[in-house]
Write a structure and sequence with these properties.
Serine Threonine Protein Phosphatase 5, Tetratricopeptide repeat; two-stranded antiparallel sheet; 2 domains; mainly alpha; 2 strands; disordered C terminus; 8 helices
Amino acid sequence: MTLREVTLLDSRDQQAMFGLAETLALLGRQKEAAEAYKKVIDIDEHSKIAALAQEPLRKTAEQTFKGRAVGELRPDAIMYCLSAMEKFDKMSQAEVKRIAFEIARKGRTGLDTNDPEQKYQLNSLPGNFSGFNLVCLMYVAFKSFAPEMDVGFDLSKEYAAGKTLTRIGAGSDRGNSLI
């Protein structure tokens, strides 16, 4: 019996689904593998196998992110980081931590960083957000209270560019306005 047959017979068999995802990834069928990894997480997001399934999804999202960059930097990431810096500048450290940890919890079940639709909401921050916007918010938040922490998505260049824009805006005649 093949792994696919096992997962069709028992769609809640997390180990078989993970095995299928790994096999599909090895065969270069990345889109199918990603769907299988997501199913692994959906079965039981708190299991050790789900934690293993999150890593290839994170790597795929980061590779897609880097592939969409114009030159060295992603302009959308810079703007999301800049916006997060401006938001967090007006908040207490406790509020920033609450936002960061809520996004991290939401990210355990997977954030679609490649879909620009603003389909995510937070309890700690009003509005609707894309998955990529949430990743940028989380990155900036952790930089404010745990700068050494690796959040699993490298936005260091975009973050630095946002910091530079913040300094430029703060030095202008219009205060913090950059527009």
